[in-house]
Amino acid sequence: MAAINATAPAAIAKRHTSMSLVGEPKFAHDFKHFDWVNPNAPQGGRIRLVDIGGFDSLNPYTIKGNPAPGLASLLVDHLFEQSLDEPSTAYPLVAQWVSYPDDYSSVTFGLRAQARFHDGEPIKPEDVIFSLEALRKANPHYALYYKNVVKAEKTGDREVTFRFDMAGNRELPFIVGELPVLPKHYWTAVGPTGEPRDLSKTTLEPPLGSGAYRIKLCEAQRTVVYERVPDYWAKDLPVRIGQNNFDEIQYVAFRDRVPAFEAFKTGQIDFWVENSAKGWATGFDFPAAASGMVKREKIGHKRPAPMQAFALNLRRPVFQDRRVRLAFNLAFDFEWANKNVFFDQYKRISSYFGNTELSSTGLPQGRELEILEGIRAQVPAEVFTSAYQNPVNVSPEDIRNNMRKAQKLLQEAGWTLTEKGLVNPAGERMTVEFLIAQPDFERIISPYKANLERLGINVSMRVLETAQYAMRVKTFDFDIIVNTIAQSNSPGNEQREYWGSRSADQEGSRNRIGIKDPAIDTLIDRIIAAPNRAELIAATHALDRVLLWNYFVVPQWYLNEERLSYWDKLGRPPQLPSQTYAFPQAWWYDATAAAKLAEARK
Question: Which residue stretches of 298-333 are H helix?
Fold first, then answer.
């Protein structure tokens, strides 16, 4: 077993049965199962889950439409399976082994002979090659993510080799291992309508998969039911033992959170993840929760804190001035919101790589400083002179001072406060709209809106249905949205889609802010080409610092634990993985508890 970041040279033909970008993998090649599963977990039962907003497609690989939940995770297997307990670490699934040369200029995967699609067809190198080509053509996310893969070819009966246009990119073998493997014979055939199937289009035809589940029933905008495949080809592999225990997994669509939670309270939904601090503090006073029929627990995790923020759309002229963006941050009173809305449950996020060693702190030093010196003229001066800190409002005087600073910045940016409000030299009033899909955010935005209006800004707020909201975001038709960017412990090619210039104009990309910055492009390239962990950390610190000092977003908050609630008929391992609560993957239906629950509810 070898880690990708091992410093010792490896023979080109050496076959690895694990990959890690952050250290040595925990498990040897002959491990029996993950230590966060119950290998003897009972199988059976049905679990009913929530889908907020509804869906109109069974294709998760196109930017068009709203795909049903669970498609990518339940139906489709990947070359390697990422560990839920080890950051950026993966073990073989469709592939049996992986090899790569010392300079990481290519990667070869050997496919398992027993790997099958649900129709019994074996998974072949041709399917893997097709998957790469079709996904890159169908979705700009995959085109950017696998940009450095220039060729995929069959190099043996069950071998496929990917060749890269650069050497030294440690991440490339790993992210190629993430490739979902799609059936070429299915996607290149005609569908039931007589038209050729097209991975770039929406569809309600249940797709052919290879995973632990297949679609049993689908009603668009209402429900989708997955049934466990009894002869699933990988059920006895170490990366699958103790998992996929429910016979059926049903998602029920609701327009928004309120009716969904009411359905949970009455037992129509079995499992609930509470994302609202108010909901967790005040929403569980119903009889089933009081009696213990509904369980509640907080489960901590060690994964990176995502950058959840008010994202300012740089495609709008009003936000192209950095001073204006800072003014918007100064006007947001997080401390008031945390005390009065969130019951003091949250911490404010102050890094794009929070809760990790990748987060920038203090002033740049050592290798990070050397990297930043190369782009000094292209980044804000504060990058070198000050440690980033969000505005703080501990006292009423703090918010008054911050509002005065914001007003001064807006004046310096050319905006004048008049009887009409804040206007530019052309006499146009500053007008912005908050676009949201979750009504819960109204109570957070309303006091923020009031502060912005005190500065003379004309502010509105619009709540849209999930489908409408998704389309507006995909086409970048918004001023301000709530945006969340989740990072891994080993950032790489995905940074191009988050902040890279090329992705800014690609509809459906995750560069929702619209960043086009040559200095940031340079830092992204450094991250991708980092030859070792130390260089990766230094380059990521630099990127984090430059993103923060450009004030592209107004940072919000994070919580390093999950708030879960469920009806007392589910079982789970006593020790869950460090990165997630692994539901429904490692949980199971407890028939004995379910019988007691049914009796208690009579």
Answer: 322-330
